[in-house]
Specification:
The protein is of the alpha+beta class and 208 residues long. 17% of the residues lie in helices and 25% in strands.
């Protein structure tokens, strides 16, 4: 049983409705069904569930990727992920995943075959979730109408890119609200039409 399936079991046994449980996780009901399909849950959700006093001992928490990648197992094809030596809070990442010839080098990480880019974090707006210098490994979201809200994403705009939690705007459906893990940073409001690309963060490599 993967973590999404276990989450569904936890919800069914919690005595809460799916909508009530979603509010506890700071997300929406529709996103819960996306979480049920995920093999690994983001640590953001795991922490929320633990704080609710629910038992997660039967499933190993996903704390991001190991610093030393595990070997590729038999019959598991490698999928080199391009790493770009550029900061996600500055610079042009419009072509990440499109022009791999510009990559600094490639990473091979088992169980992250669906990821398309790896980028270095700059700044402290997502501390302690992501620290300055960490490398985040991400999957490109092609359909922006199915962005999993409340999870960390790289959001690419015309002049810069940021690593933030994406939330729907509280009153304007044409906008997103971008929030930081570090409460010292104010939320950002951006127009959805200004977003050039979105990448879901699936894991990270920490500096040692």
């Amino acid at each position: 049983m993967h973590q999404g399936e276990y989450l569904k079991k936890v919800v069914n046994n919690s005595g809460l409705t799916v909508e009530e449980f979603a509010k506890q996780l700071n997300t929406v009901r529709s996103n819960m069904y996306q979480l049920y399909k995920k093999e690994y849950l983001d640590e953001f959700y795991l922490d929320k569930i633990r704080h609710m006093g629910l038992d997660l001992d039967t499933v190993k928490p996903q704390r991001g990727m190991v610093k030393e990648p595990k070997p590729v197992y038999d019959n598991e094809p490698e999928n080199p992920i391009p790493f770009y030596e550029a900061n996600v809070t500055g610079g042009n990442v419009n072509n990440f995943g499109e022009q791999v010839k510009n990559a600094s080098y490639f990473l091979t990480i088992p169980h992250f075959k669906d990821c398309s880019i790896a980028v270095r974090v700059n700044g402290h707006s997502m501390y302690p979730k992501y620290c300055n210098g960490d490398i985040v490994v991400c999957k490109k979201i092609n359909d922006h109408s199915h962005i999993p809200y409340g999870e960390p994403h790289i959001v690419v705009l015309a002049d810069y890119s940021v690593l933030k939690y994406i939330h729907p705007h509280h009153s304007d459906k044409t906008m997103y609200t971008l929030k930081s893990a570090n409460e010292k940073f104010e939320p950002m409001e951006i127009k959805r039409e200004d977003v050039l690309a979105v990448y879901l963060v699936r894991g990270k490599l920490e500096l040692t």
